[in-house]
Write a structure and sequence with these properties.
Elements: H1 3-11, H2 18-49, H3 54-73
Amino acid sequence: MNHKLLQMLNEAGFDFTPDIMAKLPAFENLVWLEREECAKVCEEYARKYVKDDDDSKAQAWMMLQCAAAIRTRGQQ
């Protein structure tokens, strides 16, 4: 179980009953899927808006870095 996810649930006031604990892996998967969709949006913008000039290439690179950072958060 992702430590950050447990910390967030604790801060939100969840009681860690056996029933909740049994459902956490499915919830964690949903969080991962949403994070992946956010990263894909960044990649989509990078592809959609990149032009053949240095400024837009730099912006596209930054969007790809954001996608990578979003995915990395899931591994912390």
